[in-house]
Amino acid sequence: MGISGGYAVEVRQLRYFVAVAEIGHFGRAAESLHIVQPAVSKQIAALERELGLTLFDRSRRQIRLTADGEAFLPHARRALRGIDRAEKAAADLAAGGAGIIRIGGARGLGRRLEDILAAFRRTHPNVMIQLTTSTSVPDKLAAVAAGDLDAAFVSVPPRTPGVAVHHLWDEPLLLAVPARRAATAAGLVSLADLPLARAPREEDPGTFDLITNACRAAGFAPRPGPALTHAQDILAGPVAAGHCWALLPSSAIRADSAAVSFVEPAPPILMPTALAVPHPARRALVTGLLAAAGTVVRDPA
């Protein structure tokens, strides 16, 4: 490993030089470094040739630093401190102890996402969490596969090369219906005449197909309705006005309003929620995030 600045100085040469300078003896310095004395002498001689300096006065029984050696010593120590810090930082990154983790979030995760991130912070206090929210499941999976995201929360994820999917929980979906339709809404077929608001299939193909199949199992094909982008806008507008209905994650539901009711469908509709990570794994931080998610899922607050 060379040091920049036009010199091909190796880190071990600096370490040997500092050890001899501090101990004042080649043999004892070699013992402290757990190597043989000729290796120390050889590397320091190579350092002197590279620098064009005589670092030690070897004419006496007790070797001493020359004036050039005295002047070079603080620079060598400073360089080694920097290298040691860099090595520690690299070790922390490899062990998941520091750095940045980039996570793709999703709407509708509710309190669970907050709890998972809080659990991760407790075990990785020096890691910065960079959270981005995207509605497109395929885009998030592509970002994980490309290494642009370290992990992403996704619903009903399709198989994606380079991505491993870890199932976390099944999120119940609730019917969001005009209040006057609440009494009969549990049977999905009662909503066959009303358009369904949902996200475009290209954004979340798994959830789109899950809802389509639930409607077909109830005996009808859902009528296309407005695109579901912001749930609160759909609820306060078209659903409240009686123009459509929607299926939303239960964790995203706040409370009934006078115009909108939330009803559990019969049979229940469960949306698998998973954490997608690169495969093979690239960073130890991802293991920490998976552990935090597992803790929250097993022992919810």
Automatic annotation (TrEMBL):
Domain HTH lysR-type: 9-66
Keyword field contains Transcription regulation: yes
CDD domains associated with the record: PBP2_LTTR_aromatics_like
This protein's UniProt keywords: DNA-binding, Transcription, Transcription regulation
Family: Belongs to the LysR transcriptional regulatory family.
Name of this chain's protein: LysR family transcriptional regulator
